[in-house]
Amino acid sequence: MREEAHRFGRGSHLVGVAGVPAGARGETGVIVLNAGLVHRIGPFRLHVELTRQLNEAGYPTLRFDLSTLGDSAATGGGMTRTQQVCADVDDAMKLLKERAGCERFVLVGLCSGAQNAHIVAATDPRVSGAVFLDGYAYRTLGYKLRHYLPRIIDPGRWARLLRRGAGAGNGEAKAAPEPVFAVAPAPREEVISDFTGMVSRGMKLYLVYTGGISTHFNHARQFRECFGKVMSHPSVTTRYVGETDHTYILTGDRARLLDGIGGWLTRNFPLATAGRHA
Amino acid sequence: MRSDSEMPFFFGANGGVFGMYHAPALPARRAVLMCPPLGQDLIRCHRLYRQMAQALCAQGLAVLRFDYHGTGDSAGASADVDWVRCVEDAVLAATELRERAGVERVVAFGARLGGSIALAAAGRARFSEVIAWDPVLDGADYVDALDAMQAALREDAERFNSPRTHADVAEQWLGFDIGEGLRRQLASLMVSGIDVPTLVLDSTSAAPGAQWERIVSARGRVASISPPTPWNDLRRLEAAILSQPLIQSVTGRLKETA
Fold first, then answer.
1. By CB distance 3.0 to 4.6 Å, which of A63, A247, A268, B33 could disulfide with A43?
2. Is the pTM higher than 0.80?
3. pLDDT tens-digit series, residues B199-212
4. How far apart (Å, rounded) are the C-alpha atoms in residues B192 and B215?
């Protein structure tokens, strides 16, 4: 199978790489959105590895750059960022429909990519599934207890704090780390309402959150704490991998993520042409 | 900038090499091949390469950006990256660029290992000049630096909640599988001077040091770029590298030699 490079979209402003397995006409198409500002290959080439693995399994894919990211240009036209994301993903779905006959789609996004996938998934009926990697998260009471309680009852920590207090002003200020987790928050009730709407529409959701967002999320139970009973719906699968970082820098962590997404896709969107792509 | 003047495509015998061709508005008389670095440097430099390509294209030069086998959008897994294949891909890309642009004179630009690859490919690719930004000249030092960063990554508290095992981080450099072959090739890499005009742009130190002498002594020169580029800072591993002074230096150099 060869990949195809495309310049596409309403203003011919988008750039992407489509993978279309032989005989995959009409299967569910998988569209992978930018993670932060990284171009379409994804952090450490995550999106290349993911799309190729899914192509091997028989799914058509498209990894592409949204307007102004990677190799894609701006369209102008005075749209809001949300309108632009919806229009860009609409262009992407049209391309994958043209190339592989796809009528329904699964969106995959990490961090801001999850946020963008959420925006489109909440409103576009062609989206049948979504994979949200380190998407929306809120510090719940459970989060705070799990985060602060061990620190409060740790005598060693108090001793270190007191020593630091006594020596204040002598040491160098600790440089702030580069920000990694940067999903702008949306109102929690709105996000819950979106998830509920997606599930009632028949969408399948896969949420995978990592230890890389421990400033906001720190336990598998927090899916339910954040989003309520919709997380227990049979159409929703959640996974928390506390040992993994936000961008899957280790190849073993990446391989496990890819296997997880592949398995979830196969269970929820079985190939109409199953057997051809063994 | 017309978006349709930047065309993505695959080329090469098996159509596995990804390229992005920047076509100038008028027929070009010269072209620039942009050889990317490897590993995380490639991702960090992507936007800078695009900005530079657009600036050069606006000056009337045809430009080709591309990815080596096993990198970026090109075919192959990260573990398949091979030094010899990278050099061959650069030669192949130079041929592709000449055909697309209809020019004979091709200047190569490369950052870090991309500069080293451009220097290694210069003879076979018939580059008229090589502009190398902080090229890696001593592969053994480079391998040591990456090994040290990978070891530090294992227990990076900014990234992981608890240190990972040695097995978790083995046979990788900063996010990418590394084959034993590439490690050996880079460990023995010693880039030497070439019989092609060479400009080294140095942002590794405040003042150009003696380390560049062996590649610029014959037909080249060194210029400083500031501020220093944080190539090996683990805390900035996922931050894009942008440098307007670099773009000005390269576009200025190509105006000088037009």
1. A247
2. yes
3. 999 998 766 667 88
4. 5
